[in-house]
Specification:
Length: 140
């Protein structure tokens, strides 16, 4: 520990980036200190976070569940959005947040696709560039 900065300093090259900071490494393997609410099994946790996670992923033990990483979830066949959501919920639960504060449904699909089609929500969209060109042609 450096006396002036109050931070731990490491000599290894692996720990210089924020990706490998000691808190990030520890957070991955920390079990939640005390279960918040009535959640005691991984199945209950997955059911509480919603998005039908209990059908998409199953794990045997509570300890094994909390040591999973994104790579393990990818091998299990979870989609990237589900992986990110599950890991985010695990992080929030570890820090003691109640489920009501962080659980939410996925965002709805976009109704307007791409860079903006010429017809959006049943109305024809015309840009100002096209309108200006048509005015010039009429005046000439």
């Amino acid at each position: 520990m450096d006396a002036f900065s109050g931070q731990v300093s490491y000599n290894s090259d692996d720990t210089t980036s924020s990706r490998y900071s000691p808190t990030r490494i520890l957070e991955r393997f920390l079990l939640p200190w005390s279960p918040v609410g009535s959640v005691n099994t991984p199945e209950e946790f997955l059911k509480n976070i919603g998005r039908s996670m209990e059908t998409k992923y199953s794990v045997e033990s509570w300890d094994e569940f909390w040591t999973k990483t994104g790579a393990n979830l990818k091998e299990a066949g979870l989609a990237i959005r589900d992986r990110r959501y599950m890991l985010w919920c695990m992080s929030k639960y570890r820090r003691g947040f109640p489920f009501e504060e962080f659980v939410h449904e996925p965002p709805p699909k976009k109704t307007i696709r791409g860079w903006g089609p010429s017809v959006q929500n049943g109305k024809r969209i015309r840009s100002r560039v096209h309108q200006d060109k048509s005015k010039k042609k009429r005046n000439a």
